[in-house]
Amino acid sequence: MSIVLPLLVDGLAEAALIFFVAVGLTLVFSVLRILNVAHGSFYSIGAYVAVLLGTWVIGRGYAPALTFLSMLLAAALVAVVLGPAIERSFVRWTYGRPEAVQILVTFALFLIFEDLQKLAFGVQPYSQDAPMQLLGVSSIAGVVYLNYSIALIVLAVAVAAGLRLLLARTRFGKLVTAVVADREVAQTLGINTERVFVSAFTLGVFLAALGGALASATSGVAPGLGAEAIVLGFAVAAIGGLGQIEGALLAAVIVGISRVVAIYFMPELQPVAPYLVMLTVLLVRPFGLFGSPAMRRL
Amino acid sequence: MLEMRSVRVVRGGFAVLRDIDLSLESGRTTLLVGRNGAGKTTTLRAIMGLLPIEAGELAYDGADLRRMRAHARAALGIGYAPEDRRLIPEFTVEDNLLLPSLALRLSAKQARERLRMIYDLLPELPALRARLGGHLSGGQGKIVALGRALMVGTRLVLLDEPFQGLAPALAHSYAETLARVRAERRDLTLLVTESGPQLLEALVDVKLQIERGRIDSLAPARSDAAESAP
What we know:
The complex is a heterodimer of chains A (298) and B (230). Helix content of chain A is 73%, strand content 3%. Chain A has helices at 4-32, 39-59, 66-89, 99-121, 130-135, 147-169, 171-181, 183-188, 193-219, 225-240, 245-265, 273-284; strands at 137-140, 143-146. Helix content of chain B is 31%, strand content 27%.
């Protein structure tokens, strides 16, 4: 019984990071109708930029608490610099083309980004764990927990709720909902769909980069981080049902917990645990937990 | 106000519209009749900017519409109600109606005024305002789609097969609604497509026949057509 809480905290913290990737992937899929393999790159680039900024903050002798701000800044920077540029140059070109073309183009982008990251940062791992150290630990019933893990969980729930609010309550959210429901009619009502595409894509990039930035404080960053993120993100998005925010949240929890349970009880199963879950879910519900074949909504 | 000259639209290697000449006069109701596949829907979609025009001219008050994307045409006051309603299912009726005012960044005052105008014109709607777009009957949905098109189309409204899929009684009441809109909004230009045009005879000024992607005949629907001009 005493291991339930530690497993839960670890699993949920892991779920939080995967959720940031998966929810952006699912958002981009709903609005732009593309499966973006390059999404994983935004996660690892977010991690690199966060480590660089964080190390700079510490190196200059600024207050270590500023590293929280620098993580957020890193994600915003990656989103603003890469989001519109990538959407306008490469991704837009794939709209309405066969899925195979979209996946080839975005996979090519992913490979280019991987090599660019190796050119820029080499293959050695980087880390900057000041944010994690700052938050310290809590001890509950003799077990020590990282407060950072708990903060991740709270943040993921807040982001899910925030996205829901954004979609339901704001002008941007309503335009996005309309574009997802009926792209063509949306245009005839005066909605500039291209602008909605850029904004939604950039928001997706921001969420992925934020996930990477937050992850960099716990695990550091090294080549391969982006690939792991996109594969897990796809698995979670598929389990939840592509295009489903709450589905992505629940699926991230299932995958996160299955990973830590596997690590605890059967470490050799850990790498395949998410995919075993995905297989099982898709065999029973081919469109994911929350998805349906005809569904077009967020 | 709207001029189409020698417009050609190609879909899948096939010229769906071959040589469309169409001229809409301000404040008039034009009916475009023709069989299924003749090009009625394609004509409206080309005007709205949902299909690329291969050749020819499309001008609206002298401005070249071909250079504008669909949302910019909507901003000029061109409203469009597609044949199959296509409301946003997760929005309430009122949110469906207000969506264009958000998209076009109307002021709160303007949005309220347009909404009130639509509720006055279409008295069926206020009772439905809180209903979800996905939870409406076919007849209700058509009226909401008309209201939404009026929200955008302050000057020109394109209605694609408004009676399609409506039971005869509902079609009659829809025709009465349309006649009321026509009577109250004399400034509005209407272009309506229909495969069975009998219901609209009373309010049509100009009737055009489209056949195999070409407008064949130009005939005033009524001898007193001139009277209905503003």
